[in-house]
Amino acid sequence: MRRENNEVITCALANTGFEGLGPDILMPINVAQRLGLNLSGGTEVYAIRTASGVAPIYRFRESVSVRVLVNDRDTPIVRLMPIVSESVDYVILSDKALTELGIVIIDASNGIWCFRDELGRVFRTSCTPD
């Protein structure tokens, strides 16, 4: 993902249960900082209920550029809205972000996925989050 001159390469969790307001990308604070996102301005703050209780999230008004890196094809860059949370450890893609990126989950338990135009022909394995 990229914002201005800042770039972060990482694994992201595909989560169809994350029903964002739009094509959203949820990230930990340290990833947001590496992208140069500042929590003190340009955000809407929401309180969400988590397994640990209520936690704030920060939804930015300015999108970031995201592309899926694979070794056998060039993929389009899409614009996703960043959401930052102190209570997540990994980058997580919303259901609408998965649609924008053309990602189809084939076997969630085993991390098997493909792009929509590869369905039934290609099976990709997930990377391991940092």
Blueprint (SSEs and pairs):
Layout: E1 2-3, E2 6-7, E3 12-14, E4 24-28, H1 29-34, E5 43-50, E6 53-60, E7 64-66, E8 78-85, E9 91-93, H2 95-101, E10 103-107, E11 112-115, E12 124-125
Helix share of residues?
10-25%
Largest sheet: 7 strands, mixed
Order of helices and strands: EEEEHEEEEEHEEE
Strand content: 35-45%
Low-confidence segments, ≥5 residues, pLDDT <50?
A: none
**Radius of gyration from the CA trace?**
15 Å
Count of helical segments?
2
Structural class by secondary-structure content: mainly beta
In round numbers, the mean pLDDT is 91
Shape: globular
- Terminal residue distance: 15 Å
**Overall number of strands:** 12
Care to describe what's here?
There is one protein chain. With 130 residues, the chain is mainly beta. Helix content is 10%, strand content 41%. Strands 3, 4, 5, 6, 7, 8 and 9 form a seven-stranded mixed sheet that branches. It has a three-stranded antiparallel sheet with strand order 10-11-12. The longest helix has 7 residues.
Structural features:
about 40% strand; 2 helices; 7-stranded mixed sheet; mainly beta
Question: What does this entry show, briefly?
Answer:
The chain is mainly beta. It has helices at residues 29-34, 95-101; strands at 2-3, 6-7, 12-14, 24-28, 43-50, 53-60, 64-66, 78-85, 91-93, 103-107, 112-115, 124-125.
